[in-house]
Here is the input.
Amino acid sequence: MAEAQVAALGPAAALLDFTVPLDIGLLDSVVDTFYASTTPEERSAAEKVLQQLQEHPEAWTRVDAILEHSQNPNTKFFALQVLDNVIKYRWSILPPEQCDGIKTFISNLTIKLSGDEAAFRRERSYVNKLNAILVQVVKQDWPHRWPSFIKDLTGAAKMSEPLCENCMNILKLLSEDVFNFSRESLTQEKTKLLKGQLQEEFGMIHELAEYVLANSQKPELIRVTLQTLHAFLSWVPLGYIFDSNLVESLLNLFPTIEFRNVTLQCLAEIGALNVGSYYDRAFVKMYSIFITNLQLVLPRGTNIPEAYANGSDDDQEFVQNLALFLSAFFENHIALLEGGPMNGGGQEGQDQLLIGLEYLLGISYVDDTEVLKVCLDYWNHLVCHLFQVWHGENDVDVRPFGEGSSMDGDAMGVPGSGQNARRELYEVPLSKLRLLMMSRMAKPEEVLVVEDDAGNIVRETMKDSDVLAQYKQMRETLVFLSHLDHNDTQNQMLEKLAHQLNLAVQLNGKEYSWNALNCLCWAIGSISGSMVVDQENKFLVTVIRDLLDMCRFTRGKDHKAVIASNIMYVVGQYPRFLQAHWKFLKTVVNKLFEFMHECHPGVQDMACDTFLKIARKCKRKFVMQQLQEQEPFINELLRNLGDTIKDLENHQIHVFYEAVGEMIRSEKDPRRRDEYLAKLMELPNNTWNQVLAEARMNAEVLKQHDVIRNIANILQSNTAVATSLGHSFHTQITLIYTDMLNMYKWYSELISSSIAEGGPYAARHAQVKLMRSVKRAVLKLIETFVEKTDEPSIVATQFVPVMLDPILGDYARNVPDARDPEVLSLFAAIFNKVQGDLLNEVPRVFEACFQCTLQMITRNFEDYPEHRPKFFALLRAITNHCFRALFSLSPENLKLVMDSIVWAFRHTERTVAETGLNLLLELMKAFQNSEYVNEFYQTYYLTLMQEIFAVLTDTFHRPGFKLHAQILQHLILLSTSNAITAPLWDQATLGPAAYPSNLEFVRHHITQLLTSSFPNMGRATLESLVIQMFEAKEELVVLKGTLRDFMVQSKEFGSDSSVNMAANKELWAEEEAQKQQALHARNLAIPGMIGPNEFPLKEGDDMADA
Here is the structure.
């Protein structure tokens, strides 16, 4: 077979014959064919030859000949890639003399090319690739087999300036690989060793850098030296920075245009160092000289946004680097400039601090997302810090500064007058920062009416995740600013709003830009909950009054739509105010009803969404009879329901019905609640009964498209109400349940016959899709009620028995393309709700769903994508709540279950894989505590161990790393515990006394498994790894670290480093999630930091109660 494949490659197959000298011309020709051929067949053949040549174990022996004789750049890069792979994956098994030969060859070639300036400039890409390969060798051999590397490199650098420049590039690359990217490519032990060695030998590098900066007149060399220093500054011993002339050299170079950007990057790295108080004076001196020089380079008063917009690429980079320096320095050393008694500062330091903040505020107005993000990160850090110092997170005082607390340090829980001076210092910058936030506020998710690039007011069609993240950060910053001074926040907002009102009245909508008003209203909405109640009430009344006046005075539908959007957003953000002021709440709701008749794009959607938001937070107000009212508001709402929703589209009606359901749920009287529900469902029920009556006379009416759509819409309206009403929806679903199941069965038979006659393509016909929408609506309605009900016994006794044949039996009888995945999710919800009460029905569910679904989804990883996660969710529900039912399965069926779980966690779809892993972990724990523990693990232990290692070392399954580690920990712990009393090895083959214990057998088995899978690692390395895994069995964090090291060492990291680095980030996902949880806990303690619509309310709570 191999000979036939080689022959099929034609003359190019001669490249694979290592018994004869390599034909360089033929290789060049094949490489050219791969890169330049326009014929897919030729390109594919060339790719096959190159791939086989690259994978040949002796291919690296041809590299020197290729690099010496070939003149084709692509051929040279191919040879270097061969060499790169050998160094990464086979270096440890090459004889030492061959390693030394490769090392000498690369070093000499690098020196040769970079020693000649003309060749160095001409072959820059080639030299860069050689540098990368040399660094790979260094990471393998330094320091133990190449202890003189740094000495050799710095010595060679002094031979010529081009060579020195390239040596700097090599050092920079090494630093980045060790300190920035080591987590993705080096083991923990190797990273620690290289970092320590670099720090120990940095003196020679520092000496070289100082020599260059002091003696070289060559701009390219100086620039590269600065770039190399930039890569080193975050980790070098501090004495090399502050006890030398390095900082002085950087400050002297800063005003020079060609060096100012890279110098500023170096200074930013130094400014970001947080090293205790020993070098405080050095930091203050550095900042003082820098801010003086900065005023010469960029004079105060410069319109920075305008200069940025009109500047060159270097100018724009300078602005961004300046933002990075100021934010990094202030974040770590701002206290040194404040002049307080604790840091020995003075007035000069304060003045220079204010100048720096002034520059950063100016940069914050630059119209560039990345620049703004840098500034916002710092502003958020600053105001969060000031809030913690002045308020304290655990004892929040939300009084404005003007109410006895603004300048009283003791009143804020902060003793001494130092904090008063600090408040005065930051008063003006923070006021300007509030203005910045109001002027540049990002758009929140709730706003649907936007202005397009042409200036037209349209409905938003796609969410911008970057904008939403920016809004979240700006909102948090503004909430902190509001706590720091409520009065200034409120006054600036009201002044800007009054100005916008005057502009709108004067221009009457003509040539008026709505961006300023939008940003202001988004800012107003973002501070909800941050003020005391009385102040917030007065503030909001003024805001809404001005917005309504603006709506009244403005002409044009587009302009009114923008104002309506802002009104709806603002009122939706202040449910606490609405809940406390019934008349205002009623006025707002009636205004929303008016907007529901406005057909401008986005207005109706936003009106319905806002109505739902208000209903959730103020629901009790609508079912209680308020003062000076004749009846509860819900009576009026239900009477006028038809008129209110007549202009809404179906999906908007569903949102409206869900909102009313929220109100009805808050009614305490069950009889009155049922009356409200009957009135709410009167319109859809009448239509439903009318359709049923017509169908009884002529069933063909159910095939009409309008009728099908009507039925689906009615069911979706029911689902919306069930979602909000919960168990109280029982009376309504009981009313339509039987007819609903009959309709389900009728449409199912029609669909099956259509697909049976027309084949799989019939499932795509419009008629079939419409009929399936009804079936899915039925399933969704039942599933929603099951999930929301608080009486599982009703589901088990009243709903499940009736649905088994119409739904479950129908699923089993149907052709695959007619099986609805919602059936699987419905029964998963039923088992999760009813749990063990349906133990006897598990065999029937298995019989109807299990094998037929597996046949559908295990043919490949693409077909029936909706069935996959739902099937395993059902299996997981059965395993968790009806585990005893698995004991009744035959060994063949249990094996089918286990095979399906293995297939699930092999899946490349993340949701399916995670469900499979969770299911496996839960199943193993359940069997461990059962009487079948020995039989189960004797059958499946070794298979599961092998399968988990397979996905663990596969880059497609990196997101499951945490669960992989937990499952391996469980299996290892099992082998060391007394839970399994029978041998795990094959006694018939090996005998009952082959191993002294399961522990020894499992350790030996894992070693053998990994040795056969990863021969490149060596048996000794793998034996050590297995020992470490067993030693770490009690500590999951330590075990995960060991597994990460194993994956770094294994060949599974492939050749595409960018893919692997992205995938390896998933290995640290758990740590990132813990950080986010801690941040959320902090935000919960600060009034206004969690949006009013993000609070989870308990049943019956309104916003004021919460």
Confidence is low (pLDDT under 50) at residues 1-8, 340-344, 393-416, 1052-1069. The radius of gyration is 36 Å. The CA atoms of residues 668 and 704 lie 42 Å apart. The chain is about 70% helix and 0% strand.
